[in-house]
Amino acid sequence: MANGGGGGGSSGGGGGGGGGSSLRMSSNIHANHLSLDASSSSSSSSSSSSSSSSSVHEPKMDALIIPVTMEVPCDSRGQRMWWAFLASSMVTFFGGLFIILLWRTLKYLWTVCCHCGGKTKEAQKINNGSSQADGTLKPVDEKEETVAAEVGWMTSVKDWAGVMISAQTLTGRVLVVLVFALSIGALVIYFIDSSNPIESCQNFYKDFTLQIDMAFNVFFLLYFGLRFIAANDKLWFWLEVNSVVDFFTVPPVFVSVYLNRSWLGLRFLRALRLIQFSEILQFLNILKTSNSIKLVNLLSIFISTWLTAAGFIHLVENSGDPWENFQNNQALTYWECVYLLMVTMSTVGYGDVYAKTTLGRLFMVFFILGGLAMFASYVPEIIELIGNRKKYGGSYSAVSGRKHIVVCGHITLESVSNFLKDFLHKDRDDVNVEIVFLHNISPNLELEALFKRHFTQVEFYQGSVLNPHDLARVKIESADACLILANKYCADPDAEDASNIMRVISIKNYHPKIRIITQMLQYHNKAHLLNIPSWNWKEGDDAICLAELKLGFIAQSCLAQGLSTMLANLFSMRSFIKIEEDTWQKYYLEGVSNEMYTEYLSSAFVGLSFPTVCELCFVKLKLLMIAIEYKSANRESRILINPGNHLKIQEGTLGFFIASDAKEVKRAFFYCKACHDDITDPKRIKKCGCKRLIYFEDEQPSTLSPKKKQRNGGMRNSPSSSPKLMRHDPLLIPGNDQIDNMDSNVKKYDSTGMFHWCAPKAIEKVILTRSEAAMTVLSGHVVVCIFGDVSSALIGLRNLVMPLRASNFHYHELKHIVFVGSIEYLKREWETLHNFPKVSILPGTPLSRADLRAVNINLCDMCVILSANQNNIDDTSLQDKECILASLNIKSMQFDDSIGVLQANSQGFTPPGMDRSSPDNSPVHGMLRQPSITTGVNIPIITELAKPGKLPLVSVNQEKNSGTHILMITELVNDTNVQFLDQDDDDDPDTELYLTQPFACGTAFAVSVLDSLMSATYFNDNILTLIRTLVTGGATPELEALIAEENALRGGYSTPQTLANRDRCRVAQLALLDGPFADLGDGGCYGDLFCKALKTYNMLCFGIYRLRDAHLSTPSQCTKRYVITNPPYEFELVPTDLIFCLMQFDHNAGQSRASLSHSSHSSQSSSKKSSSVHSIPSTANRPNRPKSRESRDKQNATRMNRMGQEKKWFTDEPDNAYPRNIQIKPMSTHMANQINQYKSTSSLIPPIREVEDEC
């Protein structure tokens, strides 16, 4: 301390001037947190000569003096030793560089010398090759082996070192991460020490931070050695940034221990290690995307450069310039230097902090060039990457006790809103499912607002299901299901299907057990799903083919108009809208509120037949049961629709119900005969205290999803839960009449027995010219107007024809199908149609009235308008222009009220596509061909009497009939275009599709109504099976697999098993004007009709097709009808109602056909005439029926006989081509309005069979 004081005294000599200098030094040292002992023990007796003699060396002495403390002994001279620390680094760097260069030089010289010597030896070997003995070569070989062994040892060590520092192994990754962590730790120690003087005396044994720093640097030294050994090029390794960092940080630590003093020096270079931060995160598998790697790279380079430059400014500014004897230093903290560098890089330059030293200013001159460039390029890019960072890029956190589903595919505002509206509908009871949407495009503002409105149950994440990382983010492995939405309006349906199939492949590849429900646009693309090994429809995987279902719905409307609307409303969730006014909307909306549900039947129903249970549910429980799930003896499950009275219910039978609420369906499960037998109010039927079956003890029944119950551990596949047949299984044993008709040499049906089949026909054989079509006298047929060309996407017309060719129709019941459209397009579709009978093609355009008249569109049972060009137009309002124009064109046409006299040749004309040689087409002598009855006003009823030897009588009625009365269904793409179909309705353009008049009447169908099937299938996969069974005519997974193999139906011989498949229900319409239910048609109750039809004929009624103005007291000429779904028991019927019913297959209808009369005396003579389809004789005349009808009809018949003209006609079953007589009765307007606007009862109802009353 005395020495220190002496130093201070010498510096403070020189009187007042020296004192001033001492004061300045004291202030600088204090600013740097130094402990300065400015001793004043130097006496004033110091001579001025001494002061003057030392004045020349005073600045130099000040540069070498350092402050000391009481605790740390220091050099007696108090000199700075910064040069020693710097010299250790420089010597290490340049010394090592010199050694490497020297080694390379010597190695090069040695290689050159050895190369020259090798050439000499090689020349000697060439000269002495043959004379040299084998023994002389042994020493050379031994030497080569020794060199090889040495090289091998060196290589092993090098490989070991490379493995140790490589991130490819666990050890290497741990070592790399540890080195980085310790580097950051050393940088933190530097930050702490930066508050101390640049150079100070410290005791290594007492300074804790110095000890930690020493330990870190020892580790760095060892790691440096490993890197040096593993390096292939030692020179480049020596010049690496990390090596330079080690040179200037590791040696000074050892010098500080030796000198007992510390120098901050270049320890700030440790900040350069931050550049490797992104690599470390990649080693740890934290950074996976290119954007995140790039962002971390930019940030690490920017921050490391910033901190390193701030460390250099801190060093030179606190030390001063060496050539100024360190007198121009200034006290700056490290963080003030950080601030100075940021202000400098940003070109702001406030001036509050600046560099005073020449070194500092010179560094700032060069740094501002590079720093400004880096700031100007890096910062905007960093901000852009942060700004572009996915807002929805997080991960889903599963909630305990709550399921979640993943929805992907075509995510738009329309598709999401439709899906959520149906999925989260209040009628579904409590939906404890969270919906996770995954899409690679962030939502727009409208879609984002929709997600926020449902934030409690909906989450959105940005990503792709094709990326396994994104699948992991949404926890697909724990999801209850994955739903894939398709773009129904895309221009290329095949490409859209391919995209969805790839999504299925990606999801199944990631988690094969996940349940997937996907939408498909084209039917033929469903076959590709069968190629996925983990695709299993038995485990809940489903493909909802929009084209298949859309055309199936339209086909069913050809058999029973309005059915498409009813079925679409059944699987869509609609809230009940109450209307007080007595309008058609009131009754329609009451039916719209009904949906389809499933529930297990109570044990009280065990042993009862299906009709009995169905009647009990309808009358007492106010539920309509239409089907049950049936499991055969080999555990195969299938759905039986209205199976009939031979089926007895057993425990655990699953029933399909139509009801307005899920809670209502629980009555079927809770019903107890002992407790609820005398209850009249169905709302009071709740769970009672009686002992339940074990099957239901531990689990609350689910009205939403038996499939969900199965996934939750239910006993859906329990052997005790399958219903059994008490006597025989009609699905396996055909009737005797079928067995008698089996012909092993004729293929009438496809190999599954589900569809009528014929040998493939060339398209040229079914093409009709316009004149040929006019001579054919088509009636009771289906006209399909289709727009398309050679470049249009295929619609898949097979899905339209298959339901119309179902085997539960007899051959003579099949309606002839005539396609009107471009022959180029139909040629592309023909490959899938050439196996179906009774199909013809008229090349032309649906906009040509001549083509429409040629196919007798006014006499058709249904006109279907389709377009294959709808998705090629960007403007949604114009997507349906062709269909709308065709519809308006047909409605504006005018027709005569009869066929007219046809100028046919004496041999008649058989339409193309109807093979006379086919046994299926053979006529039945003396039987009646099925009449064609259209429902439009003033369109005549055509009765054809097949009496050999008689000539037909044809009369002409000159009354006019407009095309508005032609039954028509138009396919639409855009829902809002429905307003253009009916010019006389008052629908608002913003009205939802199901509320519009064309949809309620069944004259318009849009594919958007099928969106609800996604959520309906998720909650209950049996619903989709039931819908497909109803609308496709009997398509099964086995049939789909067959079509996938051959792309066509394969003909099969009739066997008991295939014929048994014909015995299944079909949908029909029952008229109330005549027949056994005529007494109920005038003011009767719907419930009485329901019970009578069920008990007597095993027919299950489920809706009404009513005239729109039937509720009006005044007569109306409007023939539009609307759908009423599941009306209540007390609902009043009117005579013009048509009843939707599920009727049984009639084995006898194919063997005997008698004449059909529509006059008032048909009830008296019906016992002698059987219908060509199914006829039921009337048991009672309707009260208050006008008595003048019988006499009036007799007069009309007499008048027609006098006016009759004879003409030959050939049957449509052309085996023997018997001539037939046609008797055309021109009807009065009154009779046409009352009779011809709906199909006759006698054409739909099987003969009366007394059925045992089991109620």
TrEMBL record:
Domain of life the protein comes from: Eukaryota
InterPro entries, alphabetized: Ion_trans_dom, K_chnl_BK_asu, K_chnl_Slo-like, NAD(P)-bd_dom_sf, RCK_N, Slowpoke-like_C
Ranges of Low complexity composition bias in the record: 39-55, 1153-1178
Protein location: Cell membrane
Compositionally biased region (Basic and acidic residues): 1187-1196
Disulfide bond keyword on record: no
Pfam families registered for this protein in UniProt: BK_channel_a, Ion_trans, Slo-like_RCK, Slowpoke_C
Recorded topology in the membrane: Multi-pass membrane protein
GO biological process: regulation of membrane potential; vasodilation
Predominant place of localization: membrane
Chain segments annotated as coiled-coil in the UniProt record: none
Range of residues in the leader sequence: none
This protein's UniProt keywords: Calcium, Cell membrane, Ion channel, Ion transport, Lipoprotein, Magnesium, Membrane, Metal-binding, Palmitate, Phosphoprotein, Potassium, Potassium channel, Potassium transport, Transmembrane, Transmembrane helix, Transport, Voltage-gated channel
GO cellular component: monoatomic ion channel complex; postsynaptic membrane
Catalytic reactions of this protein: K(+)(in) = K(+)(out)
Protein's UniProt keywords contain Cell membrane: yes
Membrane-spanning residues: 81-103, 174-192, 212-230, 295-316, 331-350, 362-380
Xref: Gene3D superfamilies: 1.10.287.70, NAD(P)-binding Rossmann-like Domain (3.40.50.720)
GO molecular function, one term: metal ion binding
Stretches for region Disordered: 1-58, 702-727, 1153-1220
PROSITE patterns, sorted: RCK_N
The family this protein is said to belong to: Belongs to the potassium channel family. Calcium-activated (TC 1.A.1.3) subfamily. KCa1.1/KCNMA1 sub-subfamily.
Protein name: Calcium-activated potassium channel subunit alpha-1
Organism: Hipposideros armiger
